[in-house]
UniProtKB/TrEMBL annotation:
Keywords: DNA-binding, Membrane, Metal-binding, Nucleus, Transcription, Transcription regulation, Transmembrane, Transmembrane helix, Zinc. InterPro entries: XnlR_reg_dom, Yeast_MetPath_Reg, Zn2-C6_fun-type_DNA-bd_sf, Zn2Cys6_DnaBD. One of its GO terms (biological process) is DNA-templated transcription. The chain crosses the membrane at residues 551-570. SUPFAM superfamilies: Zn2/Cys6 DNA-binding domain. This is Zn(2)-C6 fungal-type domain-containing protein. Signal peptide: none annotated. It is found in: Nucleus.
């Protein structure tokens, strides 16, 4: 039955490349022609969600107990044979025969341990994917309130026969694989994938060191290079060193995700390396300590980038495990990093390097925690007030031998730590600021929310710190994106990336917390929102043009929120312009309204909207459920352009009418001049503006219509943009 279901699904390689697959088992013709492993993974309706979770957990417990009893029985057999107790041995052999347990002490034990390793991996995935669904809670920092701009209560529910239902079932909530505990349908030969060619492995490691390692340097580059050399120099190194093999496989997977932006047709799928690494996960986690922490962080880093594992909820729970393990190791305390006394110079240098890796490991974990917490709007796992760990020390760049575009040999000979440390510390400073915004503004309960004056003071203080951070960017070894057409493909070395970080933080400062009333209706704030969103869109477009953008779900979320902020600023501006044109209400002059200065032109609006839509299309095409965001944004763009064109047409007609009156021409006005302001803006001042309501039909698919139990997202907060 399962084989019939799988025959209707494409293999992983064809699925990722969006290529036609003949779905032949055990390998499709496309993979056979390419000479790559063909792996079918259960998706959609084949997930373990169809089995009651309690029954599945009980079944796993019984399987583990059965393996334990089998192992104890084999140990008893060995003891009995060694003691010469033949009678007992015969009884035990008979019992083993009845239980159909192979009488192989060493091979059977190894097989049992291998099965246990797979069970550990399945349990980790089960916890990460099922313990917390993404529909449980989304805070204000996630943009859920900003996305809920207009009421959707009257929107009809999706019909069961809708054409998009198949895509939604295949990839529910940005998740390609429905569960982690599904059965893998691949032959043993596919599971034992050969190592990549040494030139390819060296290129992938160099790509990792030149990009991903800049932001998360929790692995020592020299050790990685030495491990790679040993893996190809020694015949059994890969099998006898599971920790090093796991790290290299995960690095190959992470680097392949990034390198796919440039030569995706000629490289193996990242899932190939990832699946091979997961087969060793149980053994690696048994090492405990810093090795176990780095192992979980590699999984988290891969999920930050991977298309297959793009659910933020699973990453949230994996990071929870990692942060608690890091705190258990005491990495948040400076006392852990003190050098012991009485060491020899050689030992002191070695211990110093190990402590430096621990320090970088902690701050890398801190960054991951802030990224995911900011995306979901949830409380952070590492409290800044409980940390006294210093940042990594930036040493003098004594051995710098290459510039911003190093060659492969340069990277593998000298990873350029000092310059990388400057970049890493500056990125960490930015994550600290975003964490402060999250903790001081967005994660504060409404009952304990400070008064508006205090909130304004907090925002001003955070904005000043953000300006200091921006001033420090000038001290980093960066280059313009247009000047990095060489071998350096990392966006962490471009000024555009730091520019968008700054403006995204500004938008986060002004993002609504409990309702739109949290945004002060002043021209200065509205212009700041418009300018920052415009600058972020421009930076994202430049990075996409240079192929330096991170094609990840975190980036998709950030770009979409930037686009919503841009729409909000324009929507508010033209709404207030309309109120000004309507004139006094009940003989009273209208109150001061927030307006954009200078006023944007239609051509500028079209250019910005097109740039944002292009980036959304480029990123969202990697997920079925993510494709709707650029369609929603396109409809929002149409609504904004309609408002803008109506406003400019109204001002033009008003100008023509006033000029005719000043000229004293005694004639009937043109038909166009007879259009009143009420006709130009047919929505009354006390009515709801439903002109945007129809453009938000896809928000439940993106953010979920699961906010009924969240008081922050209830209707009384004025999200319907009363006009």
């Amino acid at each position: 039955m399962q084989e019939d279901q799988l025959s209707r699904l494409a293999c992983d390689r064809c699925y990722r490349r969006k290529a036609r697959c003949d779905k032949v088992l055990p390998a499709c013709s496309t993979c056979i022609h390419a000479g790559t492993a063909c792996c079918y993974n259960a998706r959609g309706g084949l997930g373990r969600g169809d089995i009651p979770e309690a029954l599945g957990r009980r079944l796993r417990q019984l399987e583990n107990k059965n393996r334990l009893l089998s192992k104890q029985l084999r140990e008893a057999q060995n003891v009995a044979r060694a003691a010469g107790e033949s009678a007992s041995g015969e009884d035990l052999d008979a019992a083993a025969e009845m239980m159909e347990i192979p009488d192989e002490s060493h091979d059977g034990a190894d097989k049992s341990e291998s099965e246990n390793d797979n069970e550990v991996a399945k349990e980790v995935y089960s916890l990460s994917l099922h313990a917390g669904r993404p529909r449980q809670y989304l805070g204000s920092a996630s943009g859920a309130i900003l996305a809920n701009l207009f009421p959707l209560g009257g929107r009809p529910r999706r019909i069961a026969g809708d054409s998009n239902n198949n895509d939604d079932e295949d990839e529910d909530y940005f998740r390609r694989f429905a569960t982690a505990g599904v059965q893998r349908y691949s032959s043993p030969e596919m599971a034992k994938s050969v190592l990549p060619a040494e030139p390819l492995a060296r290129s992938l490691l160099a790509a990792y060191l030149s990009h991903d390692h800049l932001a998360f340097p929790y692995l020592h580059p020299k050790k990685l290079i030495n491990n790679l050399t040993s893996m190809y120099a020694e015949e059994k190194y890969y099998e006898s060193h599971p920790v090093e093999a796991f790290a290299l496989d995960m690095i190959f997977a992470i680097a392949t995700v990034q390198v796919h932006r440039f030569s995706w047709q000629s490289l193996p799928d990242a899932e190939t390396y990832h699946e091979r690494a997961i087969s060793k996960l149980g053994v690696v986690l048994e090492s405990g300590g810093l090795v176990a922490l780095q192992t979980i962080m590699l999984l988290c880093q891969y999920r930050l980038l991977s298309v297959s594992y793009s659910t933020s909820a699973s990453l949230w729970h994996l990071l929870g495990m990692a942060t608690r393990l890091g705190i258990e190791l005491g990495l948040h305390r400076e006392a852990v990093y003190r050098l012991p006394v009485g060491l020899s110079p050689a030992d002191e240098e070695h211990v110093k390097q190990e402590l430096g890796i621990k320090r970088r490991c902690f701050w890398s974990l801190f960054q991951m925690d802030r990224i995911v917490s900011n995306t979901l709007g949830r409380p952070v796992s590492i409290n800044l007030l409980e940390i006294d760990t210093e940042h990594p020390e930036v040493e003098e760049d004594r051995d710098a031998s290459w510039g911003p575009s190093p060659s492969l040999e340069d990277l593998l000979q000298y990873p350029h730590w000092p310059a990388n440390t400057r970049i890493f510390n500056h990125i960490t400073w930015h994550r600290i600021i975003t964490g402060k915004i999250l903790s001081n503004l967005h994660n504060v309960p409404k009952s304990r929310m400070p008064d508006p004056q205090t909130c304004l003071a907090i925002k001003q203080q955070l904005a000043e710190e953000l300006d200091q951070w921006r001033a420090g960017v000038a001290l980093l070894p960066l280059v313009d994106v247009s000047a990095t057409k060489g071998k350096d493909k990392s966006n962490y070395r471009t000024r555009e990336w730091y520019n968008l970080l700054y403006h995204n933080c500004i938008l986060m400062l002004h993002r609504p917390i409990h309702s739109l009333q949290d945004i002060p209706q002043t021209s200065e704030i509205l212009t700041q929102i418009y300018y920052s969103s415009q600058q972020s869109i421009s930076s994202y477009a430049e990075l996409h043009k240079a192929r330096k953008i991170n094609y990840a779900w975190v980036t998709l979320h950030a770009v979409f929120l930037v686009g919503l902020s841009y729409v909000y600023a324009l929507r508010t501006h033209f709404r207030n312009r309309r109120r000004q044109m309507e004139g006094p209400v009940d003989g009273l002059p209208p109150p001061p309204q927030a307006l954009l200065t200078p006023e944007p032109s239609i051509s500028q609006i079209v250019s910005d909207m097109r740039a944002c839509s292009t980036v959304l299309v480029a990123i969202s095409e990697r997920w079925n459920t993510g494709r709707g965001c650029h369609e929603i944004f396109a409809r929002l763009s149409d609504a904004v352009l309609t408002d803008a064109s109506e406003y400019f047409m109204g001002t033009k007609i008003q100008s023509m009418s006033s000029s005719n009156q000043e000229g004293g021409q005694d004639r009937h006005p043109l038909a166009g001049e007879q259009v009143s302001q009420q006709a130009l803006w047919p929505i009354g001042s006390n009515d709801f503006d439903h002109s945007y309501q129809d453009y938000f039909g896809g928000f439940p698919e993106l953010f979920g219509d699961h906010f009924d139990d969240n008081i922050l997202l209830q209707q009384p907060f004025g999200w319907n943009f009363e006009s």
